[in-house]
Fold this protein.
Amino acid sequence: MKVLIVGSGGREHVLAWKVSKSPKVDKIYCAPGNAGIAGIAECVPIKAMEFDKLTDFAAKEGIDLTIVGMDDPLVGGIVDAFEAKGLRIFGPRKNAAILEGSKAFSKDLMKKYNIPTAGYENFDSADDALKYLEKCDYPIVLKADGLALGKGVLICQNREEAVSGVKEIMTDKKFGDAGNKMVIEEFMTGREVSVLSYVDGKTIKTMTSAQDHKRAGDGDTGLNTGGMGTFSPSPFYTKEVDDFCQKNIYQPTVDAMRAEGREFKGIIFFGLMLTKKGPKVLEYNARFGDPEAQVVLPRMKNDIIEVVEACIDGTLDKVNLEFQDNACVCVVAASKGYPVSYEKGFKITGFDKFRDDEGYFVFHAGTAFNDKGDIVTNGGRVLGITATGPDLKTARANAYKAVDWIEFENKYYRHDIGKAIDEA
Ligand code: AMP
Ligand code: GLY
């Protein structure tokens, strides 16, 4: 069969790699893709939000299945656009992708269905939000309602910070229309864990856990980023935590969406915080995490095409989802200056040492070819350097060994990805 993947980052590279392992697949296309994805897929120069061009391409090429990596097209209704033309696609429709697309929606859903999350209020006027700040406890968390490239969350230590945060989001529209509404919520403390799951509308099957590192600098300092590295599994995600979440969070979320007439098919990514009062939902995403996918998919035993098709067909209950009993660590090699400003166009070397059959992967995020055909840096997050191992410590040592294989000017990475492993 022919598969089209929509997106251009490290997540789409690992998706393409995993799809390439399926015996059912003859040919992979990626729109728009990147220099690494080009090694296993034919990249087509169509952007993820160009739905008409994408559906025309899929129809013309006879694409059997489209898999969407990114949030923007899902929230914007790419699944509805494909389905309207009779094309098979994996992901939530627009009315279900709102689970990620509106934080106010997701908070109200959790409240209505008793799914544990931080206490909150929603606001659609800056004046009301500012009034609310007079009576709340600090720190407090401000969230732009809509998609904001993972940057629409502000943790404010005191009222002054919160007042300027509300103005940034709602008055100055720093995150654009994402700030037409906002959520103000209780600040929680605890360890964070990401759990991704496959959902067919009724049944949910969770994947192995992972942990991201969102801040740019060592020791969780600096600005928030898309994610600087991940490890899987999380040693803090115990059987007890899993039992609690299966009963109180995962299935209840799927049932709630169905009860609301918003049947969810696709990936639900649960961002959880393990608080002293038990696990609570920080956020929902309607897609694979990036770079969570880079550490979860290399550990997945199943043929991803079979699982994805079961989600579309509503037969996920028949699937026995299995993961290897090993560990995986991804260290993001970024351009110095990310997430603020950085230069592009530096030649990257050292790819030849990576062998996936030995558990070493280099997933491209921001790369391109220059005129001479060299692979060069083309983004803030450049590569997800990933390795497996029998346990977390070995996987981490392997990943950092592989980080040294890669060279490019202005290479920047965190040195403490997986440090939490030592505290487990
Ligand atoms: P989100 O985009 O909602 O995942 O938020 C980004 C990051 O902000 C999370 O990964 C947390 O580190 C932090 N965060 C979000 N909500 C809260 C909260 N209620 N309490 C503490 N930290 C939070
Ligand atoms: N790594 C976090 C995300 O994909 O949203």
About this structure: The radius of gyration is 21 Å. The longest helix spans residues 239-259.
